[in-house]
Specification:
Oligomer: single chain
Distance between the termini: 69 Å
Helix content: 40-55%
Strand content: 5-15%
Strand order of the largest sheet: 6-7-5-8-9-10
Length: about 625
């Protein structure tokens, strides 16, 4: 009998496939396709072996992961009636296989599945305009066939958990050198028309190619390819895959994904729909005069889906493109069909009839388990328990995100990427942190933690830049500067970040189940009585006082009593008098968020004596309904 071996498999590139995107649907599609292809590699293993990490199978060999189960069903029956909508598989795995197993079978399964997706997009959208380009098929085949970096290692023991990382250092995958004009999203790849824009005649033909592709009215809506987008095969596959998912993977997925603008407007839409119903219906009737304006998927937002079920006549309002709800966006001719200015001007006036305006901010949340490689090495004999804990967490994520009216872009293993409305996003991060810790609690002695990056972003901020910044904040600030098991929060306005605050979870929450100190401050600042002393002038002067302290004392509070200093400022800014004792208690509570802290290597949280104003300003931002920082 051939001795069994251990297969370590990974699929990439992750950052260029998932991270190089512009729209929320692009990020979702990239994450989903990556997980789907990894699932096909796993399915090839399951014909002869078993997956050890991550945990994907249930008792008696039944399929446990929903994405893998759907893949197996399609392989058996040709179609799956109700497949999953989010990515739940990581892009790497470890498996036990027979000694004669050929890892090339996994690579072949990935390429075959990828080929079906690419063919569905080609047949549905590119073939009709191929003749208008120059070498379109050649460009398509070159990019599609050479994109994926597939790596594997066969080992004789299951103890070498980092062997795949050593293999990846060989860098045997060399991307092709691409000529011509480049894709506006994936900048190393040639755009698909094949023409060179600096040549006048080719510029016209390039424009004609993309105009005709955008003009496939029976296949594409006008908004699915922007006038300034000229994409490569890879970017087009991500963008258009949801429109051909049944042909590509065997089950339907949502063709629309909530935009960042919609995530910002969710709670405004909910309130308007329930309190100003007739105005909402009238607004929708006017907006529907714009072609293809009904394109948002409210079904993915629980609170909006409930309203549509209870009041069906509001479905049109809830499914409107959220750009309709912001006058500044309605004024932008570049993002709307021609000949709609009169309608848009009327919509802008109608927005003034509503009792309040929507927030332009939403939340982007990225979370990642701390030192997972080290955890697997240190507890190598308990790898099954770690894998089961990660599986338990991953399959709780989407339900928890939905409870906050958010949407999950991916949730695989210890990784989470989600979008949510501004309100409640801090609570969501805390709930996910607690769920991760709970998933390991029944496995005594495994000290697993998770860190996060939360960006409160204006919907006009470029999503690709925010995604990159979230990764940087997660790695360099939450895990690096704060010592892991931490959360970093940034407020990002149209001009860029205006404040960043971070702390270990032990500082954010004194004990399990409590609100974060920022949420407690937000409630105080929002309270009609307590909040009166926290005027805009108070925070302006607080920042000024801190800058003075920094110059004179390096923001080290030794020799300075910041409580008395800020209490005097608080009492001066109030309309009604309160006792000094009450004022001091409120200032002490405010300052809880102003002392930086980090987690030492031994796990102890160490607070610094210097002061940092961003914690108080973050609470002010949330309490002031995003209008001030």
């Amino acid at each position: 009998m051939t001795k069994e071996r251990y297969l370590h498999f990974t699929l990439g590139p992750v950052q260029s496939f998932v991270g190089q995107a512009r729209r929320t649907r692009d990020y979702w599609a990239g994450s989903f396709i990556l997980a789907y292809l990894t699932g096909h590699a796993m399915a090839a293993v399951l014909e002869k072996g078993k997956i050890i990490y991550p945990s994907v199978m249930g008792e008696g060999g039944t399929d446990k992961d929903p994405l893998l189960a759907a893949i197996m069903e399609v392989k058996e029956k040709g179609r799956c009636q109700a497949g999953p909508r989010i990515a739940t598989l990581p892009n790497r795995f470890m498996a036990q296989v027979p000694g004669d197993f050929q890892p090339a079978d996994c690579a072949a399964a990935v390429k075959e599945a990828w080929g079906r997706i690419a063919a569905a997009v080609w047949d549905g959208f590119i073939a009709p305009v191929e003749g208008l380009g120059q070498g379109v098929r050649e460009i398509w085949d070159r990019q599609v066939k050479n994109f994926w970096d597939i790596s594997w290692v066969l080992a004789d023991t299951d103890k070498e958990v980092d062997i795949l990382d050593r293999r990846k250092n060989w860098r045997s995958h060399v991307p092709t050198v691409e000529p011509g004009d480049k894709c506006t999203l994936l900048g190393n790849y040639q755009e698909l028309s094949g023409f060179v824009r600096v040549r006048p005649k080719e510029r016209e033909r390039q424009d004609e190619f993309w105009q005709c592709l955008r003009g496939l009215r029976d296949r594409l809506a006008w908004y699915e390819l922007r006038p300034d987008e000229r994409l490569c095969a890879i970017s087009l596959i991500k963008r258009l895959f949801p429109r051909v998912s049944v042909e590509a993977i065997g089950w339907p997925v949502e063709e629309s994904f909530p935009s960042t603008t919609m995530m910002a407007a969710v709670h405004w839409m909910e309130k308007i729909a329930t309190t100003e119903t007739e105005l909402a219906i009238t607004f929708a009737q006017e907006a529907l005069r714009i072609p293809d304006v009904r394109r948002q998927s409210y079904r993915q937002i629980p609170s909006l889906a409930r309203i549509a079920r209870d009041t069906p006549q509001l479905a049109d309002f809830l499914s409107l493109e959220a750009n309709c709800f912001y006058p500044s966006v309605l004024e932008n001719d570049n993002i709307w069909p021609s000949n709609t200015r009169e309608i848009r001007e009327k919509l802008s006036k109608m927005l003034g009839d509503f009792s309040h305006t929507p927030s332009p901010f939403y939340a982007l949340l990225l979370m990642d388990g701390d030192q997972m490689g080290k955890l697997l090495r240190d507890y190598i004999d308990r790898r099954d328990e770690i894998s089961a804990a990660l599986n338990q967490f991953a399959h709780r994520v989407d339900a928890l995100v939905q409870e906050a009216d958010g949407v999950t872009i991916y949730a695989g293993g210890d990784d989470v990427f989600a979008l949510a409305p501004l309100e409640g996003a801090l609570s969501l991060a805390a709930v996910l942190h607690e769920a991760y810790i709970e998933s390991f609690q029944n496995r005594a002695g495994i000290p697993a933690t998770i860190s996060g990056a939360l960006i409160f972003a204006h919907f006009n901020a470029p999503l690709r830049r925010l995604f990159q910044e979230a990764h940087r904040l997660l790695d360099e600030v939450a895990k690096g500067q704060k010592g892991r098991d931490s959360l970093v929060v940034t407020v990002w306005k149209t001009g860029g970040p205006v404040l960043t605050w971070a702390a270990p979870w032990g500082v954010l929450r004194e004990k399990s189940g409590t609100k974060t100190i920022i949420e407690e401050l937000r409630e105080d600042l929002s309270d009609p009585e307590k909040g009166k002393g926290y005027s805009s002038s108070f925070f302006y002067n607080m920042r000024h006082r801190f800058s003075v302290l920094e110059k004179e004392h390096g923001l080290d509070t030794k020799g300075v009593d910041p409580v008395k200093l800020l209490t005097a400022e608080y009492l001066k800014s109030r309309e009604r008098e309160v006792t000094v004792e009450v004022a001091e208690e409120r200032i002490k509570k405010l300052l809880r968020a102003c002392y930086p802290a980090r987690r030492a290597e031994d796990g102890e949280i160490k607070k610094e004596k210097r002061l940092q104003v961003d914690g108080a300003l973050l609470a002010r931002f949330l309490a002031a309904n995003w209008e001030e920082v």
